[in-house]
Design brief:
By secondary structure, the chain is mainly α. It has one domain (25-190): Hypothetical protein, domain 2 (Endonuclease III, domain 1). Helix content is 51%, strand content 2%. The chain has helices at residues 18-26, 35-48, 53-66, 72-75, 80-86, 96-116, 119-124, 147-158, 166-175, and strands at residues 132-133, 179-180. It has a two-stranded parallel sheet with strand order 1-2.
Length: 191
């Protein structure tokens, strides 16, 4: 891939690596209400735990194929044989706990949809239904978690979700635009 050479000022983590730049410019901080994409981002944020985000972004397309396009109904039906097969897939993070948590989370996701009408309505309730637009001066001013992400984490864990700690939930909130943490100098902060 070719490095991005435009002159836009971005958040410091969005290096010249094209996959990072595209994610930063087109997705990060943009409100998401699509159920499948919410499940995808929750899964990918959990897979990222202990790894760099770019590692997961590079595996994203393989994840989509391996996890049935992130259709929670299909993933919820994965059995032990399917998990064993996924453990052999070099295109994803081959951590049994993370793979099994995706299946567990799909089942919990469907339960949330049944109980609350949609996962979208449920997770957006943690920010009052509208995005929180923060404008930190620097990346150092972006917290690793907040009271809202901790509340989401606690609630999701109570519902049976796994790999949903406070920091993972905050990263999910950023990824899905529940919070927008583009720094003040970033061109995305001016939209």
């Amino acid at each position: 891939m070719r490095a991005v050479t435009d002159t836009k000022t971005r958040c410091g983590w969005a290096t010249s690596e094209p996959i990072y730049v595209r994610y930063h410019d087109e997705e990060w901080g943009v409100p998401v209400h699509d159920e499948r994409l919410l499940f995808e981002m929750l899964t990918l944020e959990g897979a990222q735990a202990g790894l760099s985000w770019i590692t997961v972004l590079r595996k994203r397309e393989t994840y989509r194929a391996a996890f049935a396009g992130f259709d929670p109904k299909k993933v919820a039906r994965f059995d032990a044989r399917k998990v064993d097969a996924l453990m052999k897939n070099e295109g994803i993070v081959r951590n049994r706990l993370k793979i099994e948590s995706t299946v567990t989370n799909a089942r919990a996701f469907l339960a949330v949809q049944r109980a609350h009408g949609s996962f979208d309505a449920y997770v957006w309730s943690f920010v009052g239904g509208k995005p929180r637009r923060n404008r930190p001066a620097t990346l150092k001013d972006v917290p690793p978690f907040t009271a809202e992400s901790d509340a989401m984490s606690k609630a999701l864990k109570k519902l049976g979700f796994r790999f949903v700690g406070g920091a993972i939930c905050y990263a999910f909130m950023q990824a899905c635009g529940l919070v927008d943490d583009h720094v003040r100098t970033c061109f995305r902060a001016r939209r």
